[in-house]
Write a structure and sequence with these properties.
The chain has 161 residues and is of the alpha+beta class. Helix content is 29%, strand content 37%. The longest helix is centred in the N-terminal third of the chain and has 39 residues, at 2-40.
Length: 161
């Protein structure tokens, strides 16, 4: 009987060590993930040293349709503009508010350039979809990120006629 109790004791110790190692590994994975995500992060308007003044100027130099119209096949009229007076390049993401899903992300758009139509990455059913338009601003010569800002928009999907 003593031999059976020792087996149970060793099994319990081994199981406890396994769960402790698992918990430690999971905790370390979260720490590493947070560190890596902080390294790739672009500062928001509130985190910039100039109090957002440079981003305010950049945001006034870009435009997008507040109502974007898409067909069921994914073709979407966005009318994204990086006006010539803006001094920064910009990358635009259209994110569905309800799910956080990125529906479209542009490449870098230099000052004086625009996109009228794009192809969405996701097909949606007919309806209205509230979205966040995420603007990421970059220095055009070095492509160094300088900040980001967001605005609201709505994506209206209609069946192909």
């Amino acid at each position: 009987m003593m031999h059976t109790e020792k087996k149970w004791l060793w099994a319990a110790v081994a199981l406890l060590l396994f769960f402790a190692a698992f918990a430690f590994g999971a905790g370390m994975a979260q720490v590493i993930h947070r560190f890596q995500s902080q390294q790739d992060r672009i500062p928001t308007v509130l985190e910039t040293d100039d109090g957002g003044q440079q981003l305010d100027a950049s945001l006034s130099g870009v435009k997008i349709a507040e109502e974007m119209y898409a067909q069921a096949n994914g073709e979407c009229e966005v009318r994204i503009q990086n006006l010539p007076e803006n001094e920064n390049s910009v990358r635009v993401s259209v994110v569905r508010s309800a799910t956080g899903e990125v529906l479209y992300q542009s490449g870098l758009i230099d000052p004086g350039h625009y996109l009228e139509y794009v192809k969405l990455d996701t097909r949606l059913k007919e309806g209205w979809y509230p979205c966040r338009v995420m603007w990421e601003f970059y220095k055009p010569d070095t492509q160094e990120p300088i900040g980001k800002a967001a605005q609201s928009a709505v994506l209206i999907v209609k069946n192909d006629v």
